[in-house]
Specification:
Largest sheet: 5 strands, parallel
Bound molecules: adenosine monophosphate, glycine
Number of strands: 24
Helix content: 25-40%
Strand order of the largest sheet: 3-2-1-4-5
CATH architecture of the largest domain: 2-Layer Sandwich
CATH topology of the largest domain: D-amino Acid Aminotransferase, Chain A, domain 1
Distance between the termini: 44 Å
Strand content: 25-35%
């Protein structure tokens, strides 16, 4: 199988790595890929992995590349091209695509659309008001009371949400958005559950947890995600079944009934509140950095799985199978992330870090001559597996300790509470 992977982040690096483990995958092109993908070695004889530069906003160029390469499958990684509709012209060209259409990607592209789908399908979520003026926003903010949850309706790379007890900060964030959602505050631990779907059949992955705040103890600003782990030893036994039945399947069914079937990865971000499971958000693609933690534990060959989803054949697919181990991914971010990440700092120590089942996935890196340098906010995701979370944590943090980037930041408490058994429902 020949697979074209669109995107250049840590999630795409992890996807390429996992696709390469599938014996059926012979050729992978990553476009534009990143310096980490560019130096990947094949996982089996005769396999090739190369990067090709392409402007992913230029849909004609991406279709031309897919045709020229003879791709059997195109995997679109990031949300921006999906929301912009890249999957549509690829499908029109007769190519199997893993990733939703432009219309279905609205589940992530517009929070108001997602709320409407959930209301129709009776999917449990926080109550919310959609506001278009500062006056409406102020009214909604005062109706709920603190802590205030203010969400930009549009895509904002994980930085569109402000959760604060400071009324002025809430009002200020609302004023900066064209359309804003003011939402009820949801307490309780968060879970990310990903499902592979062809628009009808839903195959849930195992749950993961992401750490959105910049600093230890969930302090500091929201980010795209500073680390993740899986599985969740504290999760109730039937959690995946419950979320599939109450959230994933009804959402997929509703999108199909609307004439906009969702094929690809549906990401449910959930809060396990005292009153039950609530959806915080949907995303239309693999989550970052949960993917970097999840994929090293997936035993099911990824190429075959994504191809089955892309061609509407998931009903015949086996349930997913997982290694019985634990996995932890720790993000190493650039100095001054998320406000104004510094670019051009030299990155050293990756080779020393990649021992003991550790993989370093590149996200914001670039080559400057022979030097690998920082080129984005979240620079690397250091992912390790182990027999349990303690061992996976030890390995991940030993590896993070090998990596040297001036002024870099990382959290030291990824998966710590879970490993210590301190998360309760
Ligand atoms: P989102 O981009 O919607 O996932 O929001 C980013 C983060 O903000 C989430 O992972 C939560 O930690 C937090 N958040 C979002 N909505 C709520 C809510 N209604 N109640 C509490 N926290 C929230
Ligand atoms: N892990 C958060 C995201 O991918 O949006």
């Amino acid at each position: 199988m020949k697979v074209l992977v669109i995107g250049s982040g840590g999630r795409e690096h992890a996807l390429v790595w996992a696709l390469a483990q599938d014996p059926e995958v012979e050729e992978i092109v990553a476009a534009p890929g990143n310096p980490g993908i560019a130096v990947m070695r094949p996982a089996h004889d005769g396999q090739t992995i190369v990067c090709r530069s392409v402007d992913i906003a230029d849909h004609d160029a991406v279709v031309a590349l897919a045709v020229e390469f003879g791709a059997d499958l195109v995997v679109v990684g990031p949300e921006a091209p999906l929301v912009a509709g890249l999957a549509d012209p690829l499908r029109e060209a007769g190519i199997a695509v893993f990733g939703p259409s432009k219309d279905a990607a609205q589940i992530e592209g517009s929070k108001a659309f997602a709320k409407d789908v959930m209301a129709t399908a009776s999917v449990p979520t926080g109550r919310a008001y959609v506001c278009t003026t500062p006056e409406q926003a102020a009214e909604a903010i005062d109706a709920f009371g603190p802590p205030y949850v203010v969400k930009d309706d549009a895509l904002a790379a994980g930085k569109g949400v402000v959760v604060t007890s400071d009324r002025d900060e809430a009002l200020e964030h609302a004023a900066g958005c064209e359309q804003v959602l003011i939402e009820e505050y949801l307490d309780g631990p968060e879970v990310s559950l990903f499902a592979i779907t062809d628009g009808t059949t839903v195959l849930p992955m195992q749950p993961a947890q992401d750490f959105k705040r910049l600093a230890d103890n969930d302090e500091g600003p929201n980010t795209g995600g500073m680390g993740a782990y899986t599985p969740l030893p504290w999760a109730p036994e039937k959690l995946v079944e419950e979320i599939t039945e109450k959230v994933l399947q009804p959402t997929i069914d509703e999108l199909r009934h609307r004439g906009t079937p969702f094929s690809g990865l549906l990401y449910a971000g959930l809060a396990l509140t005292s009153r039950g499971v609530r959806v915080i958000e949907f995303n239309c693609r693999f989550g970052d950095p949960e993917t970097q933690a999840l994929l090293p534990l997936l035993k099911t060959p990824l190429g075959g799985l994504l191809y089955a989803a892309a061609t509407g054949k998931l009903a015949d697919h086996e349930p997913l199978s997982w290694k019985s181990a634990a996995s932890v991914a720790v993000v190493v971010a650039a100095k001054k992330y998320p406000a104004s990440p510094r670019k051009g700092d030299v990155i050293a120590g990756i080779e020393q870090a990649e021992v003991n089942d550790v993989r370093v996935f590149h996200a914001g890196t670039a080559l400057d001559g022979d030097d690998l340098v920082t080129a984005g906010g979240r620079v690397l995701a250091v992912s390790a597996t182990g027999k349990d979370l303690d061992e996976a944590r030890q390995r991940a943090y030993a590896a993070v300790g090998q990596i040297r980037i001036k002024g870099s930041q990382h959290r030291t408490d990824i998966a710590l509470k879970a490993a210590r058994g301190e998360i309760t429902l």
